[in-house]
Write a structure and sequence with these properties.
By secondary structure, this protein is of the alpha/beta class. Helix content is 35%, strand content 11%.
């Protein structure tokens, strides 16, 4: 089997898939993928980790689980590939981005430029069955993402944690358990079902950049067309 995680993450997490608990989760997800259509594709389950090394993480945007419609999920929370129609949650994220920073909404739904700037785009659960939101919530991915958040909390650089939705908000105690500068933004999910109950007007992007600047870090360029 090819390497699941880059060495930097594998070391930080103490070779997680050599541990019985995480190996069982992986085996369950792979069994589901043999029996049903699972998103994202198997080779993209850990894409977020390959794009954002742990020592470069400046912000974590945490959602629930991947998009469950064909052609959308590609391993980065809330992101879709270039040329793909924007899902409703991402349209709402862009609407809030425009309102918060006064910039035009990006044309592309591919959030890779954010990931390359140190934004870890992570879901609480890394896989989903086609057409069935939250269908893999019982496979055990939450323990793995708990480990990710817990280890990130121990790193010395300033990190902002954005926890969107009830599942993501459960990670708040892990994110807060750190002696280093941390910003915890817990809020409702940007889906159409909840965006009008507190997501719109929450101004997460300016808050993240203000936190980074206050701690001597370069703000994130959220307007992706302007990323150097």
């Amino acid at each position: 089997m090819s390497r699941l995680l880059p060495q930097t993450w594998d070391r930080l997490l103490d070779s997680p898939f050599e541990k019985a608990e995480f190996a069982r989760t992986l085996a369950r997800a792979e069994a589901e993928a043999r029996q049903t259509v699972v998103f994202p594709p198997r080779e993209e389950w850990f894409s977020a980790f390959w794009l954002t090394p742990p020592r470069q993480v400046r912000a974590v945007i945490l959602g629930q689980d991947p998009y469950h419609a064909p052609g959308q999920a590609h391993g980065l929370a809330f992101s879709v590939r270039e040329g793909t129609k924007l899902p409703p949650s991402l349209r709402n994220i862009y609407q809030e981005l425009s309102a918060d920073l006064g910039v035009p909404a990006p044309a592309s739904g591919d959030l890779t430029p954010w990931a390359r700037q140190g934004v870890l785009l992570l879901n609480t659960v890394l896989t989903v069955e086609q057409g069935k939101a939250n269908s893999h919530s019982r496979l055990g991915w939450q323990a793995f993402t708990d480990a990710v958040i817990g280890r990130l909390a121990g790193l010395p650089q300033p990190i902002a944690f954005v926890l969107w939705g009830a599942q993501a908000q459960k990670k708040a105690p892990l994110a807060q358990d750190s002696p280093y500068p941390r910003l915890i933004l817990s809020g409702v999910h940007p889906s159409p079902l909840s965006a009008y109950r507190g997501f719109f007007g929450s101004r997460p992007f300016s808050q993240i950049n203000a936190f980074l600047a206050a701690n001597g870090q370069t703000p994130i360029c959220w307007q992706m067309e302007d990323v150097p």
